[in-house]
Amino acid sequence: MEYVVEMLNIRKEFPGIVANDNITVRLKKGEIHALLGENGAGKSTLMSVLFGMYQPEVGTIKVRGKEVKISNPNVANDLGIGMVHQHFKLVENFTVTENIILGCEPKKGLVVDIKSAAKKIEELSNKYELKVDPYAKIEDITVGMQQRVEILKMLYRDAEVLILDEPTAVLTPQEIEELMKIMKNLIKEGKSIIIITHKLKEIKAVADYCTVIRRGKYIGSVEVKSTSQEKMAEMMVGRPVSFKVDKKEKEPGDVVLKVEDLSVMNNKKVLGVKNFSLEVKAGEILGLAGVEGNGQSELIEAITGMRQVKSGKVYFKNQDITNMSIRNRINTGMAHIPEDRQKRGLVLDYTIENNMVLEIYDREPFSKHGLLKKDAIHNYAEKIIKEFDVRSGQGGKSLARTMSGGNQQKAIIGREVELNPELLIAVQPTRGLDVGSIEYIHKRLIEQRDEGKGVLLMSLELSEIMNLSDRIAIINNGELIGIVNASETNENEIGLMMAGIQKGGTKHE
Amino acid sequence: MNKKESLNSILAVVLGLIAGAILMFAIGSNAVEGYSYLFRGALINVKRGGDTLATATPLILTGLSVGFAFKTGLFNIGTPGQMLFGGFCATVIGLTYGATMPRVLLLLVMIIVGGLAGAIWAFVPGLLKAKFNVNEVVSAIMMNWVCYWIVYYAIPGYFKGSSETESKSIPAEASLKTKWLTDLFSGSYINLGILIAVIAVIVIAFILNKTVLGYELKAVGFNKSAAEYAGMSVNRNIVISMMIAGCLSGLAGVAQYIGNASNMQIGIMPSQGFDGIAVSLLGANNPVGILISALFFGVLYSGKGFMNANTNIPPEIADTIIATIIYFAAISAAVPMIVNAIKHKKAIANAKKLQNDGSIVQQDLANDESKVSNTEKANDITDIDDKEEK
Hints:
Chain A is α/β, with parallel strands linked by helices. In chain A, 32% of the residues lie in helices and 27% in strands. The longest helix of chain A is centred in the middle third of the chain and has 16 residues.
C-alpha cells in the first residue's frame, strides 16, 4: 500500500531537551492515523515538523514517496498538508467564507469574488456533510462549527493530508461524535488524517493505526482494531494502568458550601455566572461539568474569593463568606487546588518546602514572632513529600520550577489535603497529567470524600466527572442547567445538558 | 548569590577591565600603569581606603534599595529622589536643632527622619501602583523631579549658605563624621554612614531570608497570582516593599549629605541614585553581592582622580570601564545561552552519527509492521548514548 506521508527517524531538539528522538510515522492513503502520547510526549512538535513550523535536526520526510524539505507552512500547504490547531486561528467578526479565503482570495477584476468562493465552500460543505453556512459570522457559531470551518479551510486549499491537533478537547460528547462522522466521510473521499490525542476511546472509535510516543521516543505503531485500550495505555505510560475508580456508596452529611443566586462578572465585564445556586454536602463529590469557558472558572473564583461577587451569597458552614478575604476562607477550612498550577498554585522560584506552607507560613509552628522556623517547615514539607510521593531532584530543597507537571500537581494536592479542609475545591486536578498520576490523584480525591469532606470538582474531562462524582451539576453559559445523580445518568444526557438543553428537552437560552 | 551568579558578575568585571585596557591602549597609554594608579589611588594607604569606603557607602544603600525592590518584583527607579529627600530632611533637622540637642540623640533623630523621608517618597509610587496600577517607574521618576524642585526652592529660601546655590553647612555635632573614625583612617572623610550601610545589609538579608515578611514579599515578587491565591495581600506588600526600599535610599541621602558632605547643593540629582541600579545588577540583587559590588564601584570612583593626576589617562576612562561592566553584567544572561548552543551542536553531531549506526532499525521497520520490540532496542541504544553524553 502506498504511503502518503512518511516521517523517518525524525529528531527535533530544543535547548536542553530532545522533543523528538528518532521517531518514525507512516501514513497510508485513506487512513486515520492516531498519534498517541501523554502531554509533553512530543506529539505536537512532531506534527509541527511535518507542517513546516520546525526543522528537524535529523531525519527525512517523504510525501507520496518523494523526499521533501518542508521549510515553512506554505510548502506544507503546497504539498497538500493542512493542520487544524488546538486553538483555532479565525477572525471572529469575519464570515465563514471570508475566513476561509483569507490569504488566497479569488478575484474578479479588482474586487474579491466572495460569491463564487461561497459557492465552492457550500459544495465542499455538502460533499463532506459539514453543514456549514458560508455567510455566518464566526462569533455567532459554536466551537464545533468553528472547527469545521478550520477543516473546510484545508479542504478549500485542496489538502490531502489533514492534521488535527487535539480536536476533541473543546467539544461536547455530541460534537465529538459528529466530528468522528466527518472524519470518516473525509477518508471515504480519499483524504488521509493524522489525529493527535491522548484519549484512547476516540482512537478506538475512529483510527486505523496508532503510533505511540513516550517522552519523545518512538514506542511503536499498532493496528487499532487488534489492540486493546489497556495495551495502548500501557505503551503510552510504560506500565499497566487501571481505569476504574473504586468508590463505595456513602450517605452525604450536612451542607458545607451553599451558593445562592450568585452572579459574577467575567473578564469581559459581562455576566459570566448568572443566578447560580448550588450545595455541596460533607462526604460527597459534586462534579461541575461544562464546556470550557461557560462560567466555571468565574464561579470557582467567586467561591474562593478571587473574584468579586456581583449579587447573591456564598455560605460556608452556614456562615456568610461572600465578602470574606481569601486568607480567612482558607483559615475557616476551605482548600483549593487551582486550575493553573504554575500561575496560581506554586511560586515556581521557591523551593518545594517554601511552597508547602504557602498559605500557613504565618501560623505556628512555621513561624513565631514574625520569624520563619525553617526546621518546622522542612519537617512538614518532608511529610507531604513522602505521603504524596512528590518526586524531585533534591527533595524539599528543589525549586518548584524544576519538577515535572505531575509532581507539581501532587505537591499542590498534598499541600491542600494536608490543610485538613472541610471543603476541597479541585479545579482540573489532572489536567495535562499522565495516566499514572491521574490514577493516583483520583484515589486521593475519593479518600477525601470518604473521610467526610465536601469536594467540589470542576473538570473539562467528562469521564473524570462521571467517574468521581456523586452528583453532577451542569453549567452552560453561566447558568445552572441541572443537577443529576451520577449513578442515574450517562454521558449522552450530560452532553446534551452541557450544550444547554435541559432535561426533558427544552433548549435553554 | 549562587555560584553561577557570582561567576557571571566576576566575568563581567574582568571583561569590563579588559575593555578598559583596550581603550587605554587605543589612546596610547600604558594600561598596566593606568590600572596600577587607579587601584593605588583607591587603596594605597589607610586614608585613601577610608575615602573609598565613604564613596561606597551611599552606593551600598541605593544598591540595596534597588535590589530589595527587585526581589519583590518592583523597579525602584526613584532612588535619586528618595535619597535627596532623605538627605534634605536630615539636613533641615541638623541645621535647625544642631546647636540645641545632645549629639547622640540628634544623630539618631537625623538618621530616623532621613530614612522615614525616603520611605514617604517611595510610599507615593507604591500606593499609586497598589491602588490604581500606575507603573511605579513613571511615578517614581516624577517624584524624583518633585523633590529636585523642592530642594531647589527651599534651600535658597530658608537655608541659604555662602552662595545662592548651596545650603549652610551643618554644625560638626550634626555630622556623621566622628573623631575616632577619622583618626582611625588618618584623616579620611569616612564617617558613621558606613556602619549604617553595613547594618542595613545585615537587616535586609535577614528580612529577605528569615522573616515572614520577607517570605511574603518575595512570593509576591516571584508570582503575584500565586500570592493572591494563597491569601496574601498583594497591594499591601507592594506598598511595604516600596517603603523599605525608599527608607534605604533615604539613608543613602543621610550618608551622603550629612556624612560625606556637610551641605547640600541645589540643581543636582545625586548620581548615586541611578548608580544603585548598576550596583544591584552587578551584585545580582543579593545583599552581600551588593555590598561587594558597591565597594568595587567605590574603588573605581575614588581611584580615578589619582589615575588622572599621575598619567595622561582621562578620568572618563574609569566611567567607561564602569559602563562596560554594567553592560557585561546585563548581558551575562547571554553566557548560558552561548554555552547551550555549543552543547546543542555537539548533541546533533552525536545524533547524526547514531542515525548512521541506526539504519538497521529503519530497514527493520520497512520489513515488519509491529516493530515494538526492535525499536525499543534502538531506544535503549539511545538511552545508553545519552548517559555517556552526560
